[in-house]
Amino acid sequence: MVTSKMKKTLKTLTLLALLSLMLAACMPEPQHISLTAHDIHWDVQELHVQANRPVELTLYNHGALDHALRIPALDVDVLLSPGDVEIVTFTIDHATTIEFICSIPGHDEAGMVGHIIVSP
Ligand SMILES: [Cu+2]
User: Fold this and answer.
1) Does residue 1 lie in a domain region?
2) Which of 54, 60, 64, 84 is the most exposed place for a label (fewest CB within 10 A)?
3) What's the structural domain count of the chain?
4) 116 neighbors 50 (Cβ within 8 angstroms)
5) How far does residue 25's CA lie from ligand 1's centre (Å)?
6) pTM of this prediction?
7) pLDDT digit string (tens) for 31-71?
């Protein structure tokens, strides 16, 4: 038997489901990219992302040394011990090019430097 209270609950649940669908449609899909540290270089020197879309950057350290991703423009500094995996999320709201380095002393001079290229 369906009571009026049950009908009301069903209506509320349907509304909630619709609302969460609408919210999900408004949120841009995150961009999944990765960057891997080796001894002593990054696997890529350029990362390409789009402005105004959240970025989920997965970091790996496949080296035998510590490495650390520093993105000064985004205030990111993540230390990676050998074997570590870390995820960094950020959104950049305009087209630009920003630099990233390994902040372990000597590693940027050795070539652990790259750029995040943000397209409009
Ligand atoms: Cu390094």
Assistant:
1) no
2) 64
3) 1
4) no
5) 39
6) 0.79
7) 999 999 999 999 999 999 999 999 999 999 999 999 999 99
